[in-house]
């Protein structure tokens, strides 16, 4: 246990050390003519580093949420050499996550590299219409990822909460205003730093933008972004349940508007939820295999329309959650500190314990309360 806790503390220290280096560089520029202010900033940053290891993640009571999340030092950390997100062993387990924006339009199907993601978020970017995906990679190294699409502001706090580098093809002005202000490390195809992206000729623009994990990692490295993972990770079951569901219910139906409607059909032999979209299997273009999740989370979140064409989804704060794993369904809640965009997105069961995921791919479906989700 001590070894696991030390591993988590080391990740946290590495993340803060990089933040301190960045802060010092900015302080030198700002305070070059005032050494007293410069020294004061250095002392203050050093103080933050000393106290951060014992910090407790708190959620404001004004948000009507749980008062506290467990102290990060007291929590068990991940086993060695496994992804902090999927819980699967891999060579690049300690690599910083890269979150990529993927299209969901019928013309772009099948998508490339989806099966290799550790985690995928899906939500509507236009009310009662288009959905978009954000796939997160730690272990996977797909030779092709795409089709890429533009950033949306509601995905940004989710990417920040897992310490990801955000890869996208342009974006809404809500998203670009934040990204261009330096809110997080990102790779924008409109600038295409170090040839991170390319277009293909077999799909019409704007749906023909692609990349690869190799290209994205190369670009991030040359941009000077930190490469080591600072995300503390999710909890995972040590083994999958021996008993599979005996309820006879095997299909999750999510009421996105067609052709974006989604189903997950549970396969007891694989202990996986096979993904269907628009009534047909979701196939990964590279592998030719159907995408399958080990965990499906319904994250209920309110939304509002912006400027008649954008969807503002409340992904910070908290609400109810429904968790599917091992052929069973459970209820719970999700929490993310509104005052800290870098805070982890937590999932809890009804007793307040953090959800332990089955090792493997996680899909988080972010659904408005008025939408229908059935388990048949």
Write the layout of secondary structure elements.
Layout (H helix, E strand, L loop, with lengths): L1 H29 L4 H18 L45 E5 L16 E6 L6 E7 L7 E2 L9 H5 L4 E4 L4 H8 L5 E3 L9 E2 L9 E3 L1 H10 L12 E2 L14 E4 L7 E6 L4 E6 L2 E2 L10 E2 L1 E6 L2 E4 L3 E4 L3 E9 L2 E9 L9 E4 L6 E2 L4 E6 L5 E3 L1
How is this structure best described in words?
- By secondary structure, this protein is an alpha+beta fold.
- The chain is 19% helix and 27% strand.
- The chain contains five helices and 23 strands.
- The strands form five sheets. The protein has a ten-stranded mixed β-sheet with strand order 6-5-1-3-2-22-15-18-19-20.
- α1 (2-30) packs antiparallel against α2 (35-52).
Attribute tags:
376 residues; alpha+beta; YerB-like fold; six-stranded antiparallel beta sheet; 5 helices; 23 strands; globular; disordered N terminus; DUF3048_C; transmembrane; membrane; YerB-like_sf
State the share of residues found in helices, binned by percent.
Answer: 10-25%
The CATH superfamily of the largest domain turns out to be YerB-like
What series of H and E elements makes up the topology? Answer: HHEEEEHEHEEEHEEEEEEEEEEEEEEE
Strands in their spatial order, largest beta sheet? 6-5-1-3-2-22-15-18-19-20
What is the overall pLDDT average? 85
CATH class of the largest domain: Alpha Beta
**Could you say what the CATH topology of the largest domain is called?**
YerB-like fold
Poorly predicted sequence stretches spanning 5 or more consecutive residues: 1-7, 17-33, 51-78
Distance between the termini: 40 Å
Strand content: 25-35%
Sum up the overall morphology in one term: globular
Largest sheet: 10 strands, mixed
Tell me what the CATH architecture of the largest domain is.
3-Layer(bba) Sandwich
**Which structural category do the helix and sheet elements fall into?**
alpha+beta
Q: What Rg is obtained from the alpha carbons, in whole angstroms?
A: 21 Å
Protein name: Lipoprotein YerB
Organism: Candidatus Portnoybacteria bacterium CG11_big_fil_rev_8_21_14_0_20_44_10
Transmembrane segments: 36-52
Pfam families: DUF3048, DUF3048_C
């Amino acid at each position: 246990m001590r070894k696991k806790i030390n591993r988590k503390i080391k990740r946290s220290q590495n993340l803060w050390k990089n933040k301190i280096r960045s802060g010092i560089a900015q302080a030198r520029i700002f305070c070059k003519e005032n050494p007293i202010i410069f020294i004061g900033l250095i002392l203050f940053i050093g103080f933050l580093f000393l106290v951060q290891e014992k910090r407790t993640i708190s959620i404001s009571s004004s948000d009507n949420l749980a008062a506290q999340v467990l102290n990060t030092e007291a929590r068990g950390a991940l086993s060695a050499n496994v992804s902090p997100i999927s819980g699967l062993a891999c060579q690049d387990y300690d690599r910083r996550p890269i979150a990529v924006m993927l299209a969901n339009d019928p013309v772009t199907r099948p998508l490339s590299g989806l099966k290799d993601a550790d985690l995928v978020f899906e939500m509507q970017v236009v009310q009662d219409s288009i959905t978009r995906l954000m796939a997160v990679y730690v272990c996977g190294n797909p030779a092709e990822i795409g089709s890429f699409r533009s950033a949306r502001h509601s995905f940004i706090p989710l990417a920040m909460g897992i310490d990801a580098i955000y890869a996208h093809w342009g974006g809404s002005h809500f998203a670009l205003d934040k990204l261009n202000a330096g809110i997080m490390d990102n790779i924008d195809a409109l600038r295409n730093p170090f040839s991170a992206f390319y277009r293909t000729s077999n799909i019409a623009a704007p749906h023909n933008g692609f990349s690869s994990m190799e290209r994205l990692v190369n670009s991030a490295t040359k941009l000077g972004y930190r490469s080591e993972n600072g995300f503390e990770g999710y909890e995972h079951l040590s083994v999958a349940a021996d008993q599979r569901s005996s309820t006879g219910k095997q299909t999750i139906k999510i009421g996105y508007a067609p052709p974006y409607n989604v189903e997950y059909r549970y396969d007891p032999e694989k202990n996986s939820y096979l993904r269907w979209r628009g009534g047909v299997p979701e196939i990964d273009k590279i592998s030719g295999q159907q995408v399958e999740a080990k965990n499906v989370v319904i994250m209920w979140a309110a939304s509002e329309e912006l400027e008649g064409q954008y969807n503002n989804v409340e992904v910070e704060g908290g609400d109810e959650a429904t968790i599917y794993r091992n052929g069973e369904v459970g209820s719970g809640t999700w929490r993310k500190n509104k005052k800290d965009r870098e805070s982890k997105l937590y999932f809890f069961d009804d007793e307040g314990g953090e959800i332990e995921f089955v090792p493997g791919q996680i899909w988080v479906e972010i659904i408005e309360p008025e939408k229908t989700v059935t388990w048949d």
